[in-house]
Amino acid sequence: MADKPAIVLVHGFWGGAAHWAKVITELHRRGFGSLHAVENPLTSLADDAERTRKMVRQIDGPVLLVGHSYGGAVITEAGDLPNVTGLVYIAAFAPDAGESPGQISQEKPPAAFENIAPDSDGYLWIKQDTFHESFAQDLSEGEALVMAVTQKAPLGSTFGDNVTAPAWRAKPTWYQVSTADRMIHPDNERRMAERMNPRRTIELDASHASLASQPGPLTDLIEEAAGAAGS
């Protein structure tokens, strides 16, 4: 439908654009025709924000940015473009100016923090044998295995990159908390959501991979944001 904004989906650490597969199909079923999913390099917040901005600049008309996990930091940094009408955070980091995902995690470490391991090149991985329990405990073993084997590791330094001017201070926001999240402490999610004063916060009994385990409720939230953003 012509009156629906474009949706740009931004993945986080340890995943790629395909993590949005179930949300994409549900959005399409509901009539969203302009769907885009960024494939970020996960090399620095500046690199990832610029990659996202480039996609947004290619779109005529309003854009709703949706970020999962570290993708929340990306949309926080990149969401200042004039055609971005709203921001939706899915179990995501929403740093303030001068804050980084690493700093937020250290203040209240998540349950699976110890299952993240660096390699000799400086990339951080979730150990394959603990991926299911750490990232996606509410998915099937097969789904979690595919995520574990195809995970996209970020450069460790990206964890320490600070947001400069948070877009959530100027744009309408929505937030989904995963109450069983083991990669971002649920209380950190609640704290970040509360200070944004979002138009709606929902809590789901979900893992960090809520975008795969709870696509229906997430699409409900995105659809609400798409209808309200800019109004």
Write the layout of secondary structure elements.
Elements: E1 6-10, H1 21-29, E2 35-38, H2 45-57, E3 63-68, H3 71-78, E4 84-90, H4 101-107, E5 116-118, E6 124-126, H5 131-135, H6 141-149, E7 173-178, H7 186-196, E8 200-204, H8 210-213, H9 215-228
Parallel strand pairs: 1-2, 1-3, 3-4, 4-7, 7-8
Antiparallel strand pairs: 5-6
Helix pairs in contact: 1-9, 2-3
Give an overview of the whole structure.
It is a single chain. The chain is an alpha/beta fold. The protein is 35% helix and 17% strand. The strands form 2 sheets. Strands 2-1-3-4-7-8 form a 6-stranded parallel beta sheet, sandwiched between helices. It has a two-stranded antiparallel sheet with strand order 5-6. Helix 1 packs across helix 9 and helix 2 crosses helix 3. The radius of gyration is 16 Å and the shape is globular. The model has no long low-confidence stretch (mean pLDDT 96).
Question: Summed up, what is this model?
Answer:
The chain is 35% helix and 17% strand. It has 231 residues and is of the alpha/beta class.
